[in-house]
User: Fold this.
Amino acid sequence: MLRLDMTATVRQGSGKGAARSLRREGKTPAILYGVKAEPVALSLESALLRKILMQVHGRNAVVSLAVEADGVTSSHHVMVREIQKDPVTEALIHVDFFEISLDKERVYSVPLNCVGVAKGVDLGGFMNVVKPFVHVKGLPLDIPDTVDTDVSALNIGDAITCQTLSVPDSVTLLEDAEAACVMVTHLKQVVEETTEEEEVEEEGAPAAEEGAAEEAAA
Assistant:
């Protein structure tokens, strides 16, 4: 799992006015949620925080967060729980962290990384990644950044099931062993399935409209 370091300062002010003042100073308000402790209001340098969050995006990451308060620094292992951004400027508005124990197992969603180019794709097939993410359980620092699977031998009609995925011995894969995670299909089959889905949606649309009309008339 990715590991990063970050520093933060305990902030005293609260409310929208105090948060806006922080942002004008180039800082972002944040909250640290502890397992058995009260939430702590923090402020972080926005420029550095943005760089860190770009590295964390789409990945599991443990952040070693050094929190300064009245000249005393405490260390916390945290993960990012929520990021709020301005919908227009994408400027950081607020970030939530939650503290974790490195000695306690948790369930994580890990990206499935397909290695190589499937033989069937070269023959005109379509590679369907059924499970872009797989669920695993383990200690935070034992969790892999990705679960890799070699797809180069897959021909059209072939599939890779979850039982063939390799994870560290200290980590448990929580997926159904028989479930397909990657398959290569005929492009024609994909087109037919897409068409069938569109037809089902079109058939369902009038009923919804009729229901809405009835509700409006009631």
